[in-house]
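EI: anyone free to look at a 235-residue chain?
SC: sure, send it
EI:
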Amino acid sequence: MKLQGCVGAIDGTHISASVPVSQQIPYRGRKGTTTQNVLCVCSFDMKFTFVYAEWEGSANDCRVLSAALETPRLQFPRPPLGKYYVVDSGYAALPGFLTPFKGERYHLNDYRGRGRRPRTAKELFNRRHSSLRNVIERSFGALKNRFSILRQMPPFTIRKQARIVIACCALHNYIRDQDKMDRNFSRYGDLEYPCGPIQEEVADDISHEEANEMNMLRKSIANQMARDNNMDEIP
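SC: here you go
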């Protein structure tokens, strides 16, 4: 079920980076390998609508998104008034970016099996948020599975490595448009594809007013879901 007003999903993904030893420290992420942190926006048909590559693997997702929003030349596709992207809880609740409820079950696997259906309005919201947001996880899976170069990047300059990522995303979109029977997309087209774990990060500071706007929207959507499913609303 699509949330009314939702226009896509946003997340960062780590792509292999080949970096000289003297420059490797900022490119080492949590797993110890050298990567670049690539911010992507995708639509619900698994096509990338924005790609921002070249950031060091140690950069957190909030920092990369903030830079994208603050750099006019990048032409970040801000959602229209009243619309929003779904993002994980590692991002700040900026206007136009809808996060899940923290401290509640979230991943699709958390709701699989007998007796594990959502029990509260917050869980119901998170279940549907996760089901929508996993389109970007599926898109990343399809991208990396198709282009092995993204898993083991040759020792080009970082600028060229970033351009390779962008080119692969463009080819991904082209194939999505031209070949509706593509096996790779069929493999990752399952709406219930399990998302990986969310990496909790410290969100950049935002004003109380900015956070309150999206928190109120989230509560309103969750309570509407609760009414539709005869559940107790969030007070």
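EI: The radius of gyration is 18 Å.
SC: 👍
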